[in-house]
């Protein structure tokens, strides 16, 4: 069980397509297509998407963009847990838990949350059609956590345990998919899954929980537990919803004054050493031995080049030492200078 083995050789940077679902803004089709093309031209061969991203919009756009390429030349992951219906609704009024109107500019199709076996199979079939492909490499069980379900998240987890988990395990055994795991914004479902002897996931796509700005909880149990079981982590949202990349969002909402103040402290140290914050963010997430790859999102072509350039920046060891001394990274967090 290794996610790294399922990714193209040498891959540490993938492309998260949530922005292509019109997250936060109405993105023109041409701009979305140009962004995927830029990712391809810069050598990215791992693409992650989900039905939830704009009620299928991101999958449709990604499928159209990748149709020009050989299927064997890239790795594709999507998610299950939501089924898209033909019915329409007012997207500005969608109940997305703490995420509010995250995809209010997406397609108007109504989505239903369903982690059962039948819904999992239907979701996969629908995703294959939207993505214009005959197979999926990795399937993540999406958003079974408190940020979407509140106190009911454990009930949703139990449905997934009896439904999606078993279906995906069978599909992996049959060779229909190559790997499966959870795609979540919280560590608790991942920890619970590691404790289940029957689950045996290959990895987790963990968004926003192992970043330069927010990583303490993941360090406590999840990362050590994942290492012990050879379950690897794909880090989503390495820029913490954009606030580490010059934006104002954290946790998909406007960042609090406390978060903005912490970001400014990081920026001040980075400026002294001539380090782009993006570079520090990517290298931090990749420094943990449990991390298989990072997948920042992008909705503009130029952002892809920025990510690639950031990954190549040489960061002075003194930068990392000062970050640790100023307690801006946890004392036990692996850093590039520790290797």
Automatic annotation (TrEMBL):
One GO cellular component term noted in the UniProt record for this chain: cytosol
GO molecular function terms attached to this record: oxidoreductase activity
Pfam family, one: Aldo_ket_red
Record-linked CDD domains: AKR_AKR15A
Family matches, as SUPFAM superfamilies: NAD(P)-linked oxidoreductase
Residues annotated as domain NADP-dependent oxidoreductase: 13-325
InterPro entries referenced in this protein's UniProt entry, alphabetically: AKR, NAD(P)_OxRdtase_dom_sf, NADP_OxRdtase_dom
Protein name per Swiss-Prot or TrEMBL: D-threo-aldose 1-dehydrogenase
Lineage of origin: Bacteria, Pseudomonadati, Pseudomonadota, Betaproteobacteria, Burkholderiales
């Amino acid at each position: 069980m290794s996610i790294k083995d399922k990714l193209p050789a040498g891959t540490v940077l993938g492309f998260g397509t949530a922005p292509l679902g019109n997250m936060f803004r109405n993105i023109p089709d041409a701009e979305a297509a140009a962004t995927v093309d830029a990712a391809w031209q810069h050598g990215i061969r791992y693409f992650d998407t989900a039905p939830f991203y704009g009620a299928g919009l991101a999958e449709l756009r990604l499928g159209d963009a990748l149709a020009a390429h050989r299927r064997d030349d890239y790795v594709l992951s999507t998610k299950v847990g939501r089924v898209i219906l033909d019915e329409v609704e007012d997207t500005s009024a969608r109940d997305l838990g703490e995420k509010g109107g995250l995809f209010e500019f997406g397609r108007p199709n109504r989505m239903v949350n369903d982690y059962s076996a039948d819904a999992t199979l239907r979701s996969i079939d629908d995703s294959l059609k939207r993505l214009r492909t005959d197979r999926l490499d990795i399937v993540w069980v999406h958003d079974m956590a408190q940020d979407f379900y509140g106190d009911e998240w454990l009930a949703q987890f139990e449905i997934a345990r009896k439904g999606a988990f078993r279906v995906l395990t069978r599909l992996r055994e049959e060779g229909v998919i190559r790997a499966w795991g959870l795609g979540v914004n919280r560590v608790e479902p991942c920890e619970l899954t590691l404790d289940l002897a029957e689950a045996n996931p290959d990895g987790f796509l963990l968004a926003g929980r192992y970043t330069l700005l927010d990583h303490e909880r993941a360090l406590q149990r999840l990362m050590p537990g994942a290492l012990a079981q050879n379950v690897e982590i794909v880090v989503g949202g390495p820029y913490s919803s954009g606030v580490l990349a010059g934006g104002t969002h954290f946790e998909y909402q406007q960042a609090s004054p406390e978060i903005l103040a912490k970001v400014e402290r990081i920026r001040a140290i980075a400026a002294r050493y001539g380090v782009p914050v993006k570079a520090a963010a990517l290298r931090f997430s990749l420094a943990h031995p449990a991390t298989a790859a990072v997948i920042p999102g992008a909705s503009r072509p130029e952002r892809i080049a920025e990510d690639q350039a950031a990954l190549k920046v040489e960061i002075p060891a003194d930068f990392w030492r000062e970050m640790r001394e100023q307690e801006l990274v946890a004392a036990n967090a692996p850093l590039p200078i520790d290797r």
